[in-house]
Structures are given as structure tokens and as C-alpha cells.
Request: fold
Amino acid sequence: MKTSATRIPPLASTTLFTLVTLSGLVVLGLSAQPASAADAVEAVATKNAPAIDATTLWTKNCKSCHGEDGKGKTKAGSKLHVQDLTAPEVVAKFCREDMIKAVTEGLKDEKTGKTRMKSYAEKLSAAEISATVDYVLSLTK
Ligand code: HEC
Reply:
């Protein structure tokens, strides 16, 4: 069996370019001289974070259970008995903070202790989690 030719050089230079660009951006962000270290981190994060595309995040991470439209009429959603997250009477039971907490920490069945929705804390940033929650909230109106 022939092994395909390795093409490391172009890849390596792309990585290098990305690294140089990223560190350049970090330096730029820091040179804006924010008031505190926390502000500095925040400023860099805001400046360098790619624009959050809530629709894509929703489609990638949430749609399988909650459905494209948030109504939960999917195979997995029906199995898990997800509620219609666009129904005003359902949404009225949660506040935005509860929803963010549920997505961040995950949800467990109170009786069986089984995970109903996993925690997204490691997969998504706090900003991305709020964006997906805002997205689902926007489906109600
Ligand atoms: C594996 C299936 C599954 C996936 C994927 C999933 N969820 Fe859930 N989600 C559930 C279940 C089950 C519940 C609990 C039943 C309910 O409230 O509908 C739930 C509940 C919720 C609730 C209601 C909050 C609460 O306290 O009950 C919100 C808001 C929510 N999910 C948002 C999301 C977002 C945003 C994503 C993507 C980042 C996501 N879910 C991905 C299964 C899932």
C-alpha cells in the first residue's frame, strides 16, 4: 500500500501564520490599556472572538433534541419528552438565568439522576450559551 505524500510545509506555515496573527491581535487588544486585568481579558475576548452565530450554534448543538424550531418534535426530543421551548406557558416557567444554568450545567432527572441534557460548559463559551438561549427565546415571539 502506498502512503500518500505528506504535505506538512503548507500546513505548518498556515499554523505559524495563525499563531502570529493571533498573538498580534492579543498584543493589539492589550495595548488598548483597559482599566483592569479583568477588563483586559474581556477586551481581548470581545475583540478577538468571532461573531457568534446563534443559529449555527443551535443547529449544531441543540437542534437534534429541541428541533430547528425549538418545539422539540424530533426523534430524540420525543424520546426525552422535551418541552416545546417556544410555548409561552413553558417559557413562562423559566427565567433566562435558569435556562442558561440548565444549558451550562446540564439537567438531570430528579428521580433517577439520569442526565437529560448534558452540560455544555466545556463545549460552548458562556457567551455562546447565552446566545443559544436568546435564540430559543426569540422563537417564542
Ligand atoms: C440530548 C438532547 C438535548 C440536547 C442536544 C439539548 N437539550 Fe436542552 N433539554 C433537553 C431535555 C431532555 C430538557 C429537559 C426537558 C425540557 O425542559 O424540555 C432540556 C431542557 C432545556 C431547556 C429548558 C431549561 C430547563 O430548566 O428545563 C433549555 C433552555 C434548553 N434545554 C436549551 C438547550 C440548548 C440551548 C441546547 C444546545 C446548546 C440544548 N438544550 C441541547 C435535551 C437536550
